[in-house]
Amino acid sequence: MTSTPSSSLADETYHAIRERVAAGYWAPGTRLVNRKLGAELGVSMVPVREALNRLASEGLVEHVPGAGAFVRLLDRKQIVQLYALREQLECFAAREAAARIRPDQLEQLERLCADWRTLLARIQQSKGRTATAVVLRRWLDNDLKFHRVLIEAADNPWLTKMVMDLRLLSVIARNKPGTLPLDSAERTHRDHEKLVMILRKGNLKEAERVMRRHVTDGREFILRHLEE
Predict the structure, then answer these.
(1) Regarding the domain delimited by 5-71, which CATH topology (the fold level of the hierarchy) does it fall under?
(2) Confidence band, pLDDT 50/70/90 cuts, at residue 208
């Protein structure tokens, strides 16, 4: 069935707002005002309202009665719950990917690792040896792409949908300049390069082991930052 112009506009508005949330355009806890969003995107408040309702159903936006819609702000308990679920799903995905990944998917992962090496050099040269807002957004965008390719290699569309929605929530929690120092960036990059090597060898158990450590390291990193 062909989309009507109104449904097409609603979809475009949804994707535009979703991309801004993922890119850290607004910090967690920011109020999203319908009229202001409509003006920025050049649409009426109707598709904006539909988009925010859709994002709320995905957990990226939170509706607070009497106050409006806000970018989701996760507390400690929610972060622990999020990463516990991610650990189970992504370890399973890593095992499946190690058995099924295609050469073209491995090439995509290797290109992303090469781009991370470029970003690492920029972090090394930056003041405080910490990622700037621009570098952080590109780093996290690469992270989403890397794990999407890896999870899609498991060849299970339900798994892909669940994991990517959970990972996007994790990105929102980390989307703040100053939260990616050089040592953390180097450790994350090493994990990604090791995963590519393991996937190329088809080692299922090792893929699961490295992914488990990768996810738990991410959880501890975010919890430390939350406490600080």
Answers:
(1) Arc Repressor Mutant, subunit A (1.10.10)
(2) very high
